[in-house]
Amino acid sequence: MYLARTLGTACLCALISVNTVWAEDQHAAPHWGYDGAGAPVYWGDLDESFKTCTTGNVQSPVDIRPNSEQANLSPLTLNYKTTGMHILNNGHTVQLNYDKGSTMQVGNDVYDLVQLHFHTPSENLIDGKRFPMEMHLVHKRGDGTLGVLGVMIQEGRANTTATRIWDNMPMQQQAETTIPGSDFNVLDLIPGDLHYYGFMGSLTTPPCTEGVHWHVLQTPITFSAEQIEQFRKAFAMNARPPQHLNGRPVATD
Length: 253
Prior knowledge:
The chain has helices spanning 43-46, 52-55, 160-167, 225-234, and strands spanning 63-64, 69-70, 76-79, 83-89, 94-97, 103-106, 109-119, 125-126, 133-141, 146-155, 175-184, 196-202, 210-217, 221-223, 251-252.
């Protein structure tokens, strides 16, 4: 996940600097990436602030297995509104910063939608299966707690909303395209079935901050092969490998 630039400062993303903005790499930090000397296996050694990437016990992503703990998970209520399109190429992914006013409610907890971004291949796995892509919607509660909604993307029918994003995606790093007054709504990228897997985890990019509430939908959406390939031309691979569960439960509803 990636923290944008309107949150505040600190624990999010490298994916989510908790009080910063959802732009994981917006602070002056060592170069990190997905291959070579900046690959995930080295993240914890790149900077003291990245140590949790190596020492943390509740890291994301994970491999979600079908024998996950059964639980009475609170249903998801998504109150997402239309927004202008603010599309950022942050060097690690394409990220859409969302206008204020959209929320995800889980039981009594209400999270504000901050941004969404994409990974290829998927970071989380389901029963050992990796999907071609995964979308992360990053939310923040009033107390600073982060909640991520993960949506798997498999190859199939084209998604017209994805086409709009890709067609306006800046190819230059740190470039942003803004289309004000757009009728973009991320609900067009959400399946109708909101059953999900719930677990505690972390940001999936440095500084790998823990304490993130994860909600991964069980039903995927589809992008066409051409749409998946178009994203991969810009970001060939931007997925952290799955991390050990270390005994933590993964609940299913």
